[in-house]
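hey m, so remember when u said the tokens were messed up on ur end? i reran from scratch. heres the input so u can diff it against urs
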Amino acid sequence: MMSIDHQAAAPTVDDLVQHRNQMIMGSVNDVLSSHVTDHSAAMGELSDEVTSLTATIANTLDRGKRIRAQFSMWGSFGASGGELVEGVPEIAAAIELFHFAALIHDDLMDSSDTRRGLPTVHRHFADEHIREQRLGDADNHGSAAAILVGDMCLSWSDDLAAMATDSLDSAARRTVRAMWSQMRDEAYAGQYLDMLSQTEATTSRRRTDLILRLKSAKYTISHPLCLGAAIAGGDDELLHLYDQIGLTAGAAFQLRDDLLGVFGDPRVTGKPAIDDIREGKRTLLMAVAESRAGQSQKEILRHALGNPAVGEDDLEAVRSVLTATGADSAVEDRIRELTGKAMEILEYLPVDDVTRSALTGLIERCVWRQS
């Protein structure tokens, strides 16, 4: 009887990508869970009445996609040749906490009711105020609680960012901290410019592009990639190429977000499609439509953008203008163009094949996503 010597097949690139992705999600979630649990316990010892603040963080933080954390971890793998470097899970988790804080404050500024399929933090505490029949204004209480929760996440993210650099020499530590500080400043500046654009009837293409760069491109992909690489000892060439990938793919990511903000299915996105219209978001999508619209179409946009009273009929009217002017197609074309540029850089990026494959797949998921 013939015996056959079965040998295990060597893992493929896809196998290794999947294995590292599991490691990424596990390590980042472990850091986040431990960090939030430690702070929750410390605050709970002060008073059990404040545990509702920390419970809201734990319950909502779990629902994130960890996009920025994944870019940070894969950025480090590109610099280290696939080795998990001390401090990288902490910086990836720090970015996630910073992002969560930004979402909490952003939802409050935009008066959004839902996020990730759940009530937003300010809405959650306002509803709790009503259920408990407390004194005072429920909305004011909800807003104040959300500001506190956002501030808590901001300070906790700084704690993690500091922990991430513990094992670095003083020069590398200064480099990483400077990147972290720059990321925060750019995100704050982009948010204010976004708010400012909503107070004006029109906004310049220059400001629209700057908001796109600061609030999304740098913050979503570029800085996470570079922070992970810097901790793992990446050189200046790699950091420069990561930055270029971030600027192109990150802009495409935000443009997809703008399209989903108007045309997305709320059951998939977890957020009403009408919010961006009510808030008067001056995105590239709207800028293109305004530049191409006829008088009657401009009136539809002028009536709807920034009007908190608009309803579903107004949303459909705006959608009709966006499609009739070809604004939606123009943004799709721009997404394809930007994604193509990012993919070109990826082809000659000096990283291992597993990292290249993972970054390719991650960018594709970001720009062609449905939520």
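this time it looks ok to me. The first strand starts at residue 114 and ends at 115. if urs says something different then somethings off w ur setup not the seq
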